[in-house]
Design brief:
The chain is α+β, with helices and mostly antiparallel strands. It has 9 helices and 18 strands. The chain folds into 2 domains: 184 residues, Aminotransferase class 4, branched-chain amino acid transferase, N-terminal domain (D-amino Acid Aminotransferase, Chain A, domain 1, 2-Layer Sandwich), CATH 3.30.470; 172 residues, D-amino Acid Aminotransferase, subunit A, domain 2 (D-amino Acid Aminotransferase, Chain A, domain 2, Alpha-Beta Barrel), CATH 3.20.10. The chain is globular, with a radius of gyration of 21 Å. It binds pyridoxal-5'-phosphate.
Amino acid sequence: MTDRTMTDRTLAKATTPLPFAIHRNAEPVAVGDRTKLLADPGFGRVFTDHMAVVRYSDTKGWHNAEITARKPLMLDPASAVLHYAQEIFEGLKAYRLADGTLAMFRPDANARRFQQSARRLAMPELPADVFVTSISELVNIDRDWFPSVDGGSLYIRPFMFASEVFLGVKPASEYLYLVIISPVGGYFKGGAPAVSIWVSQDYTRAAPGGTGAAKCGGNYASSLVAQAEATKHGCDQVVFLDAAEHRWLEELGGMNVFLVFEDGSLQTPPLSGTILPGITRDSLMTLARAEGLVVREQPYAIDQWRADAQSGRLTEAFACGTAAVVTPIGRVASPDGEFKIGAGGPGQLTTRLKQKLVDIQRGVGPDPHGWVHKLG
Ligand SMILES: *Cc1c(COP(=O)(O)O)cnc(C)c1O
């Protein structure tokens, strides 16, 4: 076992700020082709001309930071990530503000969460300033890729994986951190319709002591069969219950969940270690509380959900995350039957809170919490 000592981490921190060498892509996508791609980018299939790369080794710390042409990676088949899945990622967006400038939304929060995920996966922590600089440099060089379609944005995907060539099971001694950008259209064309969700019976997403609170690829790998089951039952998304009692609401495969009650209060499951601490979740709680709304971070049982939906005490429910921002939940299904939420469509409070957040992200409304990080 190599032990990554505090000295290594301190050394890595001490070497910052890390300057990014800029190597422009000599063969960028032709303007005409780019325009065609950006007319209907969809989600996650179109990519820009460049990527950010930073290397890490136990001996050198963080080094070789560069912005370079986006291209396939050369990986040795024995690279540790391909075998033991030491990989973490982030997801955030750059928006075009009403005044025309590009801005990132709360990148410092993503930087912090990336460090927390790294700790859980026994990976080195990338200094927050390197994280934010890697993104701002990359967005800056690829700014012509911003899609002009309604609701368009740049979806930014920072990620890090174990690149050491070794089949022994241990925290790797070498890592690659990269950032790629995908121009995306509105996640749902014509605004978010309400989705149906399937309550997973046989699978759980996370258990106490596990990796549920870390943004790691492995969590997604293990949620795919449950999502496939939801699709088989005619539902759009899967929702997971807790591992111990299979009773308490946790979250969707990649989105946090909120409940809205007839008295105007909101509730969301607490961050007890098995739930991913969503930045959209945190932002919505902050906005709701600033409006004077009551927001409870408390466990909520699936039976209670059914009873409250049927009695009318619960009026709305929604899921939230960076990709789709806010998605109303219209119907909940399980082997015990299904129930409808409110009228089955987007609720009033859901729609209003979403608009408030989107207005801040797009620079339409004021930004009292300093969330919008403008780029040059
Ligand atoms: C990323 C993610 C979320 C949402 O987090 P945001 O920061 O709001 O995008 C929720 N749940 C899971 C499992 C996630 O991976």
